[in-house]
Fold this sequence. Notes:
Layout: H1 9-15, E1 21-24, H2 29-45, E2 49-55, H3 57-63, H4 74-91, E3 100-105, H5 108-116, E4 121-125, H6 139-147, E5 151-155
Helix pairs in contact: 1-5, 3-4, 5-6
Amino acid sequence: MGRPGRARAHEVAASAVAGGIVVGYDGSQDAYGALCWAVDEARRRELRLHVVRAWTIGSALAQVARPYGSIPSVQELAAELSRQTDRDLADAGLGELGAQVHLIEGSAAKTLVALSERAEMVVVGSRGLGGFAGLVLGSSAAQVVHHARCTVVVVRPARDAG
Length: 162
């Protein structure tokens, strides 16, 4: 589904994203909801799906399990994020649709805005892994909404029935 690497957003935009749906994915529950919505929409509209996992060393260290005191290499971080993303894609029911996975080192908001120049739609969760629980819209989602060059869909989490 994609190999671990250190691609930059402009490299991906210039070579791989030409139309289709771009979904931002960071491993959070909100991002998983956005991923599932994007899978259904891509299937319904018969569009290519680009799953973009932008990351920084700090965000990756917070998401990758490791023995206390160990510091994984950048390549190990990228490989683990790639494995996590592939596992989540399988759980999301990707099936025969397929997707192109882009693991990009850099700011999620800047990456998604750059990719929006060639996408038909960008899909994001309303909140990611940031630490401000009271926010209705996370900072990356807000930046994408304000600066993207195409349609943006913000997927909010399902409400509890109780």
